[in-house]
Design brief:
Helix 1 crosses helix 2, helix 2 packs across helix 5 and helix 4 packs across helix 5. The longest helix is centred in the C-terminal third of the chain and has 21 residues. 41% of the residues lie in helices and 19% in strands. The chain starts with a helix and ends in a 13-residue tail after the last helix. It is globular. The chain is α+β, with helices and mostly antiparallel strands and 143 residues long.
């Protein structure tokens, strides 16, 4: 499997790793069956994601997609962050092998789950903003 230089860089030197103790939103996605689990933490101030951290259990592509996704939403308004797609994550990494595309989907879902959790903590129904949250749909899972 050939990975781009950007994938290798984000795997070897992931950005924003860790957790935020007093996070405003936490999203966890993935499935132990497919082996990739992502947890994303966000801090929000005036509707802007001021800090974001992640913890990922999985392959190099899972770590790389988590890392770049956090970079892409940090400093963004919630509405802007919600426009992040798995395709944008793949493009930012200069591509992923077909067997690893599900990692980019998990990165998008982790971000959406953390924002959904933020809205719930604010007493706001997240569905109009985030949409329905789905379970892992990678080909290796039967969730």
């Amino acid at each position: 499997m050939i990975y781009s230089e950007k994938v290798m860089d984000h795997f070897a030197h992931p950005r924003n790793v860790g957790e935020i103790e007093d996070a405003d939103g936490i999203g966890e996605v993935g499935n132990a069956k497919c082996g990739d689990i992502m947890k994303m933490y966000i801090k929000v101030n005036d509707g802007v994601i001021t800090d974001v951290k992640f913890k990922t259990f999985g392959c190099g592509a899972a770590v790389a997609t988590s890392s770049i996704a956090t970079e892409m939403i940090k400093g963004k308004k919630l509405e802007e962050a919600l426009k992040l797609t798995n395709k944008a994550v793949v493009e930012a990494l200069d591509g992923l092998p077909p067997a690893k595309l599900h990692c980019s989907v998990l990165a998008e879902e982790a971000m959406k789950a953390s924002i959904s959790d933020y809205y719930k903590r604010q007493g706001i129904d997240p569905e109009p903003f985030v949409g329905k949250q789905s379970a892992c749909d990678c080909e290796n899972c039967d969730v």
